[in-house]
Amino acid sequence: MMDNNEQLRDAIRQNDPAHVKAALAAGTNKEARDAHGKTPLLFALSLRSLDAAVVLIDAGADVNAQDDISDSPFLYAGAEGLTDIVRRCMQAGADYRVYNRYGGSALIPACERGHVATVAAILEDQSFPINHVNRLGWTGLLETVILGDGGAAHLRIMAMLIAAGADVNLPDKDGVSALQHAIQKGQKEMAQFLEQAGAR
Length: 200
Hints:
The protein is an all-alpha fold. The chain has twelve helices and no strands.
């Protein structure tokens, strides 16, 4: 017979909100961790069991609890472009000082991966640290250029970051600016955009 924790995780696997609610009502620990340090909420997100995840967030699950590789629900949702979950995590008290294994925020991988709607959601909070530098020496703007493809999504993200006050002249750890990276990569539109924003 499954214990309460396993019943909850089974309900999450099935993305069954009613059974998730029932397991929580039975007193199951919503913060119980698996062998990899994942809480039920992070487990739900990793399976894309988003209906189950919403129930857990609404029940007060910790959106900042990190697993063995430093993922938290908020950080994971940002990196994976789960915009509704990002918003819910922010409303539930996402801590912007909790960083992933690269020392990055939820914004930085969202920029890199071209998750336009997710970036927009994060930037709705003007207190979000958009110039945060990760361990690689990169900000969200730098990752948009360095790891982006120079296409429409990354251009849109660049525009949103600049409008939100991103520092276009903050260089990487080697002293190379976003504009210099764009030129080196042959990203003409990005380079023009940066120059218009005062990049050097």
